[in-house]
Amino acid sequence: MVQQDGPAGPVELLSIDQERVTAEWIDGVSRSLQGRISKAEVDRELRELYGALVDGLRAGDEDARGDGFSEVRALLTELSRNRARQGFTPSETAISVLALKQALEPALRNGSAEDTTAYLRLARILDDLALLTIEAYTRTREQIISSQASQLMELSTPVVKLWDGVIAVPLVGTLDSARTQVVMEKLLQALVDTGSEQAIIDITGVPAVDTQVAQHLLKTVVAARLMGAECTISGIRPQIAQTIVALGIEFGDIVTKASLADALQHALRRSGVDLVTRQDGGR
């Protein structure tokens, strides 16, 4: 709703002793950030924000979500994104707006009732803008966390070359749909890059195998077969073997081995590599 300023409206309140108010606002925000952002940077951000805030009020708008405050919202969104990327908390981000209320308080000590009313009107706007910073901050943090999760998934799913023509994917942790997609993509790309025809999926580090995990493994094996590669699943521990039997999971003609060493021996034989048996029974 559009409201016109009275004799002592929010615009006039911000215009009285503007330099002092701006300086105290900048000092308050700088102290809260404990020097992790230069005062010159804070000065630039807040002076720009102050000007946009005054322009919005002069347009007769006192709705923080209204058209008159579009520039203010844009500036605060960028500020909030920067604070989120720099590791500040939501409170440290919101203080960039809320500290202006404290900077304005000295002007009310000898002020009129109209000045107090103007302050309260402005305080409501600033509170709404502070909430906006938290919303923008939260969205940015969620994006950062999602990106980091994707990067971590990539790092936790390495494809290693064990021998000429033999690659392996050692899996650690829970295997879900998203991670299976990453495993499948990296495995297929490695098959193309190395020209391998034998692939080993090692699940020694997977804590449990249920029907869903088994389906994910089967899809990965089928995808590799379509690329002309044979897959072996290793790391079938006794507890996992019992679970697979109890659940009635069928791996069909997919080769499974108890250990990565056994799977590697099988893959090497399938690749035509002669394995020499030592007298002590080793390979």
Automatic annotation (TrEMBL):
Question: What are the STAS domain coordinates in residue numbering?
Answer: 156-267
| Pfam families named in the record | RsbRD_N, STAS
Native organism taxonomy: Bacteria, Bacillati, Actinomycetota, Actinomycetes, Kitasatosporales
The alphabetized UniProt keywords are: Phosphoprotein
Q: Which residues form the signal peptide?
A: none
Keyword Chaperone found: no
Please report the name of this protein according to its UniProt entry: STAS domain-containing protein
Q: Which domain of life is it from?
A: Bacteria
The record's annotation in Gene3D superfamilies points to:
STAS domain
Ion transport listed as a keyword: no
Q: Which residues cross the membrane?
A: none
